[in-house]
Design brief:
Layout (H helix, E strand, L loop, with lengths): L1 H22 L8 H9 L6 H37 L100 E6 L16 H15 L5 E4 L8 H4 L8 E3 L5 E4 H5 L20 E3 L14 H4 L7 E6 L13 E3 L7 E6 L1
Length: 350
């Protein structure tokens, strides 16, 4: 019974305390009471806080990264924009590998070519008022356009293939190279006269003797080259023995007067001028032993017995050195072999 009373009293006391507490005034929250507790807490002790802070830091870092990435991207775009498109000749911008670029003004007759190369001799374009010609790699001393882009011309000292036969740095005729740079072969009338036997030079007869006379007279006159007579027999003629059938140069007298353009002109039936000057460059008019037609063949039937007879009973064909018609070589007449006449002498090699 006593124990019960004690317990009952204890319970009553507890109820009284509770009621007192309920009646006591409420105190305000004082953050300072918790300050030490928060400050003394470590990261390990507050993983939630640490996580929150880490999350914040990560967010800030990502923002910075995003900002940097954006900046880098903008910088790259700016770089590409400043560089522009790939280098292009004709865009007006001087790029690496270009000597010039005038844009739409690039032209073949301007200072900057379509390929963005500066105009120069040898580029294959003719630049007005600067060049006469330009064959690019084809410019050469032997072509129609010289290395300095000037047109080849007779007298420039270069033999231009397919255009000239010779070039002795002048355009004077009578020196072996004509005014138009064609080879010249001299022709003269002998200053000496001969009967049908052609006089005698030891060791020679007939046509060989006639050639020997021409060569001797040429050497005496200090003429260069080989000379043969314009003379025929029934077995040989100038068309077969002078070897000039392919000659396309000029036949000229010693004073430079042209008598024919090549073999075709010589055998055309008429000359440009009579063969009336001797190896001494003196004008003479005379009857000439030939027995040769205007085409260079044997005219027959007379040839003073192959030019080995001076018998008056025989005769030889003649021409007239004062004429430029076909009669220069074939006057259609015969002359007694006992008479005297001259010879035509032709240079056959230089």
């Amino acid at each position: 019974m006593r124990a019960y009373l004690i317990n009952n009293r204890a319970l009553t006391a507890l109820l009284f305390l509770d009621a007192a507490c309920l009646r006591s005034p409420t105190k305000e929250f004082d953050p300072d009471l918790y300050a030490d507790t928060e400050d003394s807490s470590s990261d390990e002790e507050k993983p939630g806080t640490t996580g929150a802070m880490g999350s914040g830091t990560s967010s800030t870092s990502d923002s910075s990264s995003t900002s940097d990435s954006s900046t880098t991207s903008d910088s790259s775009t700016t770089s590409d924009s400043s560089t522009g498109k790939e280098p292009l000749c004709g865009d007006g911008v001087l790029d690496d590998g270009e000597e010039c670029d005038l844009g739409r003004d690039n032209s073949s007759d301007g200072s900057c070519l379509p390929g963005c190369m500066e105009a120069r001799c040898g580029d294959g374009y003719i630049h007005p008022d600067v060049e006469e010609c330009d064959d690019g790699p084809g410019n050469s001393e032997n072509s129609g356009c010289l290395p300095d882009c000037t047109l080849a011309s007779c007298g420039d000292g270069f033999v231009h293939t397919g255009v000239e036969d010779c070039d002795d740095e002048n355009t004077e005729p009578g020196d072996g190279c004509s005014y138009d740079c064609s080879h010249e072969l001299f022709v003269f009338l002998t200053s000496s006269v001969f009967n049908g036997q052609l006089s005698q030079i030891e060791g020679f007869t007939g046509l060989d003797l006639a050639d020997a006379h021409c060569q001797k007279l040429a050497e005496t006159a200090l003429l260069q080259g080989t000379y043969r007579a314009w003379l025929s027999t029934n077995s040989e003629s100038p068309s077969t023995r002078l070897n000039l059938n392919n000659f396309t140069g000029d036949f000229v007298l010693l004073n430079g007067t042209k008598i024919a353009d090549g073999w075709s002109g010589l055998t055309s039936g008429a000359l440009m001028a009579p063969i009336s000057r001797t190896e001494k460059n003196v004008s003479e008019g005379s009857i000439v032993w030939t027995s040769t037609a205007s085409n260079g063949a044997y005219s027959g039937p007379d040839d003073c017995v192959n030019w080995q007879s001076n018998n008056q009973a025989y005769s030889g064909g003649i021409g007239n050195s004062t004429l430029a018609t076909g009669s220069w070589t074939d006057s259609k007449e015969a002359y007694s072999c006992s008479s005297s006449a001259r010879l035509y002498c032709f240079q056959v090699s230089l």
